[in-house]
Design a protein that fits this description.
This protein has about 130 residues and is mainly α. It has a domain of about 70 residues. The chain is about 70% helix and about 0% strand. It contains seven helices and no strands. α3 crosses α6. The longest helix is centred in the N-terminal third of the chain and has 23 residues.
Length: about 130
């Protein structure tokens, strides 16, 4: 019975290791999809770019950082209005790559996966974690 149990847990560990390898090998940022003409036309317009920039500038964190840098909000919008369409679109597209809070979600998920794997390995090897 013990041999059967040991073999069963080894199989589960191998399946979990293989599934983590497969899931980890999928790149997160390179998922592509076919965009319709509506999506392309909406992203090209000056109004859409201005709305995106305005939304970012209204963020409290961004406003505080700009004030600390010596750029009051009243000076920012006239400068943005002077940009031509190409510069405005480039600026708006660069805002998509920013992470306002950092990429903390990926780090938290990775730590949780590591903790779960350690717990499974400890269980498979009949070890106990005692915290005093």
């Amino acid at each position: 019975m013990r041999l059967l149990k040991k073999s069963y847990f080894k199989r589960i560990a191998l399946i979990m290791a293989f599934s983590m390898l497969v899931i980890g090998s999928i790149p997160a940022k390179s998922m592509a999809y076919v965009a319709g003409p509506e999506a392309v036309a909406a992203s090209v317009g000056r109004d859409a770019d201005m709305a995106k920039i305005q939304r970012v500038l209204e963020s409290r964190l961004v406003a505080d950082k700009l004030e600390a840098a010596g750029l009051p909000t009243a000076e920012i919008m006239p400068r943005i209005d002077k940009l031509d369409d190409g510069e405005l679109h480039q600026f708006a597209s660069q805002l998509d790559g920013l992470y306002p809070g950092g990429d903390a979600l990926g780090i938290v998920i990775a730590l949780l996966v590591i903790v779960i794997l350690v717990m499974v390995i400890m269980k498979l090897s009949n070890r106990k974690i005692i915290i005093r």
